[in-house]
Amino acid sequence: MKRISDPNQPDQAPLGVREVAGATVLPWRAGEARGTLEMGVLDARGHVLQDTLIRRSYANGREGQVGYPGQLTPASGEVRPGTAIYAGPWLEHFGHFLLEGLARTWAVRRHPELPVVWSAAAEKEDDTALAPGEEPGLNGWRAALLELLGIRNEMIFATRPLGFERLLVPEAGYRIQHFCHPEQAAALGVVEHRPEPGRRLWLTRSRLRQLQNLSMPAVEARLEELGWTVIAPETLTIPEQMDHLARAERVAGEMGSQLHPLLFLKEARGLRVDVLLRDPSRPPEIYNRNYDTIAAARGLDQRLHRMTSEIVLRKRGVQIEKLSTDLGEYFRALDIPEGPGTPATNTKRRHGAPAAGTAANTERRHAAAGARPGKRPDTRAHTGAAQDSTEEGHRMPNDLATPDPATTRAGTAADTAADTAAGMAADTAAGMAADTAANAAAGTDTGADAPAPLATGPDGRPTLDALAEHFNTDKATRYRTREGKEIDGHAYADFYDRFFRDFRDEPITVLELGCGQVWNIGASLRMLKAYFPQAEIIGVDNKPAARQLASDGFRIEVGDLGKIEFLRQLRRFRPTILIDDASHLWSHQILAMAELYDTLPSGGIYVMEDINTSFGHMRETYSAGATFSGHDFVNAVSTALHTFDDDHLKAVPYPEYVAYVARQTAFVAQFRHTALFVRR
Fold it and tell me: How do residues 340-351 score in pLDDT, each as one tens digit?
């Protein structure tokens, strides 16, 4: 067979059928190696027929074997007399069933008189619900696909090893990412293409219960305004889906199996199909080639688009959560002039004429000078200044540092029980792992209510508060507790947005002290990553559980923020924005600023959150023996900015330090329980 490097030229040799006497059809079951299946057809000697094992090819030219011989279990019961034809695996995934489960359709349609045998999911040993060979249920979308193809044969489902007097075993007419044989393509082409002028069809994945492209609801709403028909295929019957495809003059959508039914169209040559690649972080030449084989089989004018403005937020298997920093790129890829923005990049046209020229990636960097409030930082000047600055920060009295051994409380009341070893293990199992499993299980082709589009700002991108609510950090206006109850959040994100927006597209470093409680760890970091697509996001925490966030692309530092030595290790990062949302202990809040504030560039932002721990019943918990609170410190600096009154400074603890911070500060802004410093 031809290699994947030439998917447009499949083998032209006719496909063959093998007649096997005394064959045994095995059910399929998950193999020991991840992503493999034990399955196959055995001949009378018990040898597996290699053609009945699933094989796949990949974009890098490598071939992989997914199916492996099942256990050589003797056929149960009597051998079925007469002749039957083997169809393949009765798979449960829509795309894989359409491509691999139906790979022998070319032969099955030629034998309407023969019983069709499927390798079905193996029964468990204690499963007595099905008799040997009894069908697991010929219904749902798989039955609808067979009806569409006119396959109405008697069906036999091998949920246990089944013996046959004589079995016809056709070659597979499709191999994943490799080829679709012309005989298979002809057998699948059963729906007439009758395009209606101007009918443009978008196949959405936004209603699937899985990780999503957070920008897509806004894009799809705009497409509908422009006259596109937007459908969620998993909410429609197979005939309804095919009716939409048959009447479409153009088809587009994000990469997914909702596009595979294009194989059922007959004479669709020239139909323009735009496919948006799923993972923008992968090299553009490494992608799922099934779309090429389908396009070649049907003569589609297919165009693959890699969106350079997309930022990957997290991955779970093949699922990806991402966000675009330029919604206009989607519209430009579709040749829609109404979409806002700048020229598109990295768009490939396949199986048709070359696409129009595209602009190269551009990079904007600000080199501001001076020091006025809200100004973007002068990173060049900052680098030079950093080389001359002390590596110890501003010297503070040792009474603010955590003694060793510690004699003060090292965390908040909310972190005590949950952050013990047992508490973290329980949180991880009951919270994050359960959520991952639930999402992974639901992330097939199951429909769900469409997520509401994220609120956007004047630039058309999600606001910081919208992202905070999406990732469920208490910085949002509304917040969901661990029990799922929706309550008022701190609304910090809406306040920060007006100060952060100037840095949104800058290659800055954002450092956050405190990664959140274990059950929702990393929520704020994900919000920041989505908001600052070009930034390096660094999280600091004292919980070992935070280390798992490194797999999501964050840099994580674990240590005690009450230790001067650890704080000084953080100075090397020299962030443009620093958010202290850690223990909220008074001494920790002041000590962190003492050690890290002067590492910010001119125009940089330092945030001290939750200074409400200075009041009421929280005073006793968060003072930990200190007498100067975070709120007291903020007020002292604010007053010093306006007065620099010697008598005022003498009235507060650490007058030299308060004066030192005030001299470096352009202004201080307070909102509810947070304070924001802009460095002079």
Answer: 443 333 444 333
